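cache lookup: miss for this entity combination. No prior model stored, computing from scratch. Input as submitted by user K.M.:
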Amino acid sequence: MELHPLTIFVAAVFTHNIALTYLLGMCPLLAMSKQQSTATGMGIAVILVMVITAAINWALLHYILIPTGSAVMSYLVFIIVIASVVQLLEMLIEKFFPRLQSSFGIFLPLITVNCTILAISLFMVLRDYTFWQTIFFAFGSGVGWCLAITIIAAVREKMALVSDVPDGLKGAGITMVVAGILALAFMGFSGMVSVQ
Amino acid sequence: MTTFFVINGLLVVIAIILLLAEKFLITYGECSININGDRKIELMGGDNLLAYLNVHKIFIPSACGGKATCGFCKVKVLSGAGSILPTEEAYVTKKEAEEGMRLACQVKVKSDVEIQMPEYLLGAEEFQAEIADLTSVTHDIKVVKIKLSGSRTMSFNPGQYIQLKILGTDEYRAYSIASSSYVTDGLELIIRLVPGGLCSTYVHKALEKGDNIIFTGPFGDFYLREDSERDIIAIAGGCGMAPIRSIILHLAEKGMPRKFYYFFGARTTRDLFYTKWLREMEAKFPNFKYIPALSEPTPKDRWDGEVGFVTQVSEKYIDPDRDKEAYLCGPPPMIDAAIMTLTKRGIAPENIHYDKF
């Protein structure tokens, strides 16, 4: 049975959240979740890059790489596409939305090596998704990642005000604990939809 | 074979798209940098503020080569730089950020920018020089004598520092000048070998007599205040000797007009240096007193001087009835402890000058 793109979207956001069930993209999740505003900014940037690269990579894979028998080079192409899209996006944002650029700062280029982005392209190959499935999967995963980092940032902001975190747990330590508890909470969604 | 052409074709297409994008998207046109309202630099935008200032021979302290890892290149930006970047937040305090303080290396010039910086920074220049001599004075400290190339001279206030360029990199390291401000055609630095330290390793292991070097300077608001008659208390540790030595040499030239207590902290006797010179100064000038303190003397040292942390030792000597000012140079924990001790002893914070490294 072919999965409906919307099912995939819901699964990607909740039941198979890329950050909380696959533990991908941990580095920015830990580093960027201090402030809610930057976390949301990063999340939106990830959604944007994820959808665009997934679309381009899907098209390249199915219209160029597979027909010419070059699928063996797909990793190389995916990585280069991701890097170029980020570069292009940075130039576009800098030109047309300078204010947004200053709030992204160094983080937009860092998305190049955010493993969630590559993971989307790899999962799309692995699960043999159609174009629309891929788009919704990418969009859903982006939204899911954005949701995770935003919630973690909100919790951390609140904790900074009221919690007495032991010295040894401060910083990344307590953030891992928060992410873990959040992942447990997200397990509550499982059974809602099932993919794979 | 097809794969080869396909991949190459893709790469070429991507490269062309990016190059076109760069050509059409990245154009900032002519911008200007206005410094303190009286100097204007015209330039084509796109690069960072630090780079432009360097090109125009305005040298502001920077150690990391524009990577936002040293936090030295702070300038006050009045307008035209947008909001502060997350990369700067580690180095710019909230209060400084409100005043418009930014790291010059992180400010991309895309429009007209107005900045404000202290006058003494505008006096800094770049110098070519030659290593005249290198001497080990302790097991890990070398004194480096530098001779300026050509007939150039550099005047500085005793206590200021220069930034030595590490050849082959974009990085600089700051070192206080240890020689007299009356000598203007050369200078001396005191450099301790820091394990794993880039510049100190370069100086200790690679530099030889006769080598050419580049440095910028002089920098710093840590220098002898000559408009006062107060007693001077100097507390230093390790290479903190350097600026204090410059101050002593300067005052010696004038016959040591003020009372001067110099407390020097070290672990054991093998960390003490310039002892003979300092004792000679003591003999020559009754106003000058040198008090070394060892924190961990071993029986081998046969030490009969002061024992303990230099800040605790200094406390005993401070005469609360006289008007004093203090010059502190050494590692941050030492400085923090010294500031606490001195303020407790009634020295006003504005009369405590320090240089942490």
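stored under new cache key. The mean pLDDT of chain B is 87.
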